[in-house]
Amino acid sequence: MVRFVGVDAMIKLVRRTGLQPFLTGLCGAIESDFSRWQNFEKTPRIASHSSVGVIELMPTSDGDHYGFKYVNGHPKNMKEGLQTVTAFGVLSDVSTGYPILVSEMTLLTALRTAATSAMAAKHLARPDSRCMAIIGNGAQSEFQALAFAAITGIEQVRLYDIDRAASRKCAANLAGRGLDVVICPSAQDAVSGADIITTVTADKQYATILTDNMVGEGVHINAVGGDCPGKTELHRDILLRSRIFVEFTAQTRIEGEIQQLPENYPVTELWQVIAGTEAGRQSARDITLFDSVGFAIEDFSALNFVREQALSHGIYEELDLIADLHDPRNLFGVLGHGSAPFRGPQQPPEAA
């Protein structure tokens, strides 16, 4: 039997732990795995693009466990009453190849993206950062705000979305959580006075969510929305003024903001900052940019963290996913021909 964490179980886990402690714990798990980056297999995600979206597989292994995530990105879904992003993941034991966890990852991806963003800001933003702007107030925005509050000490969140209803939704969800939330009439107004700017929009196109004149010295930019070929959010001039940090360079060159720059343009991988082999922010005047596209190691960390939480709290189901046989050679026996082959509680179907 394989442990399964579905949507209901994921909600129960987060509620049992508390949302912000869950985000903090998840951030710690990701940071720990980034500090042992060299132990992992690394490859750009495998993407299947269509005219309306993308479906991707994101695999990695540390030699002991193998994990992958299936995830889609379909911006047009929102108009049809569907989610833009859905996902599930699998964690397996490398020594046997058996899956040990199957989990929903629609909710978990939002949580791990926010935790990764805040982890990056902990290392790259000014330590005295207290005001954050979020441009794009869809499904990810509340997670970003609460992760930054828990991990970096953000106190004020300034919201802007072309759909004002999205900003009102975000503000309502953040009410009573200790943040000063301001809905702004424009992106320019939202970034005014912000120490950290998060861009997290969904349109699958080259866009200019931030122009060069909107970004002053000392700001940290958390660019989340640019995450596939042909989809960016920042004016190229901002990149040229920034110290740029990425997850896995080979993937970000294809999908991130830096697809606007020459292939040899210098960037720093975030794990190097965490490991202490490269500098992060070097002065209060630096503009730092985390060009985040999401990487498989973050999902691996999230799946391991959820597995630990699920086992600790006893919140999971069991899936009858693998035929556990007395004689591994007698797979045919599960069809009901011959003696009962199962070791576990399963019973073979009645013979036809």
UniProtKB/TrEMBL annotation:
InterPro entries assigned: NAD(P)-bd_dom_sf, ODC_Mu_crystall, ODC_N
Keywords assigned: NAD
Pfam hit, one: OCD_Mu_crystall
Entries under Gene3D superfamilies matching the protein: NAD(P)-binding Rossmann-like Domain (3.40.50.720), ornithine cyclodeaminase, domain 1 (3.30.1780.10)
Family indicated by similarity: Belongs to the ornithine cyclodeaminase/mu-crystallin family.
Protein name per UniProt: Ornithine cyclodeaminase
Source species of the chain: Hoeflea poritis
